[in-house]
Amino acid sequence: MEQNKLKLEEVARELGVSKTTVSRALSGKGRVSPETTARVRDYVSRSGRGAGSQPARQATSNLALVIPSHFVRLDLPFLRKCMGGICRMAAQRGYDVLLCYADERSTEQLQRQLAARKVDGVILSRTMVVDPCLELVRQHGVPYAAIGRLADERALQVDNDQVGAARALTRHLLQTGVRRIAYLSGRINYTVNVDRLLGFHQALKEYGVPPAPELVFSDVETPEKRLDALAAVLERRPECILCGDDSLAFDLLKDLRQRGVCVPGDIRLASLYDSEILLDTTPTVTAVQFDAEALGTAACRLLLDAMSGREVVPRQVQGFQVVLREST
Question: What is the chain's percent helix, strand, coil content, to nearest 5?
Answer without folding.
Answer: 45, 15, 40
